[in-house]
TrEMBL record:
InterPro entries: Elp3/MiaA/NifB-like_rSAM, Radical_SAM_N2, rSAM
Domain of life: Bacteria
PROSITE patterns with a match to the protein in the record: RADICAL_SAM
Protein name per its UniProtKB record: Radical SAM protein
Segments forming domain Radical SAM core: 241-479
Organism: Geomonas diazotrophica
Pfam families: Radical_SAM, Radical_SAM_N2
Amino acid sequence: MSWKIIERKRTLLAGESGPGRGKSGGRLSCCLVYPNRYHSAMSNLGFQAVYGMLNAQPEVSCDRAYLPDRDELEELQRTRGTLLSLESQRPLSSFDLIAFSISFESDYLNLPTIFRLAGIEPYAAQRSPLQPLVVAGGAALFLNPEPVAPFLDLVCIGEAEPTLPPLLELLKRGAPSREELLRDAAQLPGIYVPSLYQPEYEGVRQVAFIPSPGAPPRVRRVWDPDPESRPTVTEIHTDATEFSGMHLVEISRGCPRACRFCAAGFIYLPYRTRSPELVRQEVLEGVAQGRKVGLVAAAVSDYAGIGELCCDIVAAGGRFSVSSFRIDHLDGRMIEALKASGQKSVALAPEGGSQRLRDLVKKGIDEEQILAACDMLVSHDILNLKLYFIIGLPTETGEDLEELVALVQKIRERVLAAAKENRRLGEIQLSVNPFIPKPFTPFQWCAMEPVKSLEKKWKFLQKELGRLSNLKLQMESPREAFQQALLSRGDRRLAELMVLADRLGSWKEALRGWELDAEALVNREIAPEELLPWDFIDGGDVERLRREYRKALDENVGG
């Protein structure tokens, strides 16, 4: 192997610190793979938590691996080398278990590349029993694992805390054959074995999903009933991350709001919070290390006692930031503490540009509350606001976009007035994202708006807002959003498309030669009674989703 690659890995390891570093030896060797760059992986709290969990298991040793950066990739191709793990610089093919942690559907595309670089067959059915067993988990798999199911031996449907220990015990015991091992694994809560199920299709639709004898008809999503069982905090600190110098602490899991477009409000049910005593202990450890504390939750401001917690951090001489605010639930003490902590920027998510659309998605806020939240923030000298909006929501019209523009202008006026009074600059960043129908939400049956229509709406926003001072516009590419939607609601036939894209080096070319009509998959309304690729997951109250879907559309028929 090239000395450049070895030296690069040693440099990364030398820049790390923390209690979560792996251990050598163990009956079961595992390589935890994040299918994106090192920087993205180490910025992901879920990946770090699973790494810590694996190495805490008796007789299990765990390394990490990532998608190589451009320089390493070129060096691998030049030397015809193989992908190595970070800690021990071992080939991935030498481990007993390869475990993928996948939070985002777009990272599905990198799996064939990683298999190719590791010298491992991408399709599970073609791999030798001598090659590693391949398992995957993470939020993307909770939603819909089918696009990558042909690559995987096992999938964890649910949170790692309850799924990993029994699975690892089974793998340590072993079985006479891989087939028997997989059949045993299928009996564990939250473990899905793709090879034990056979889908059937008619055109773009999936019409059947047939389990093998002995396999459960549905796989139940599992969740951790004890949020105190293990802290979810930064295990390894490194400067090569989005959160350099920060100690991240998860304070709650899930979201109590259940906005109709948002998967987090459904796949992490029930909503759970961690005790103030344990959270306080963990954040003060971060302060003692001289690090800024990052409070992580889908809705930080919904956490009971958040104001007191933030004041405690500041009183201890620490600084903190938060991952998200709820516009209708801002805590005055938290805002004061943020100001004292030196926070200059805050993100707010109105999501819908008009009141009608905010009601459609069940956001539960009105314009008066949005403006009041902005007033509270700018009055505390927090003058940089990031606003998140979604375009292309079901029933959206030109009038809704005009209301979005008017709302942004009202917020901008408040920021400019406060900035002038305080004699310093304030800025609004407007982040616009196309609506993507997500599994296990009431909008899972909705169509995504066509790319050309989204591009037209983006041009309207640029025309109306793009030239305003102190305002920056950014939008996720509609074509990338289309790709994400295809991966979100697709079936197993996408695996072939991904392998082809890796071989050709072009997703666009692969899509051109694919047997299915991608636009028909993404841009069509799905009947609520139609079988969905992810329906084998017992993940909650489907009737509730149908009720919410029908209620949303019935109330907005005239939209």
